[in-house]
Design brief:
With 85 residues, this protein is of the alpha+beta class. It is built from 3 helices and 3 strands; from the N terminus they run βαββαα. The protein starts with 12 loop residues before the first strand and ends in a 14-residue tail after the last helix.
């Protein structure tokens, strides 16, 4: 059995210089709870709606100024969708 059955069709990918506000808007628009963060080399992080609350709101940071690179979780592990369970 492959991982394909667990894949979500709506994966949003933003650049680390995108703002937390842009990420929140993308999550709302696409009805997802996270966005992937990538640069030219590939995926470098992930930001979840929980990250925005804990790292941004609780820290009283400006969502229009705070970049995803400052609040994302790093060291994301990825698997090919064809990998087996």
């Amino acid at each position: 059995m492959s991982l394909d059955r667990f894949r979500r069709p709506r994966m949003i990918v933003l650049h680390p210089t995108a703002t937390a506000y842009e990420a929140a808007c993308a999550m709302a628009e696409h009805e997802v709870g996270s966005v992937l963060v990538a640069d030219a080399q590939g995926i470098i992080g992930i930001v979840t709606d929980r990250d925005l609350v804990l790292e941004l709101v609780a820290a009283d940071l400006d969502p229009h100024e705070t970049q995803l690179g400052d609040v994302m979780s790093r060291d994301v592990v990825t698997l090919d969708v064809s990998a087996s369970l």
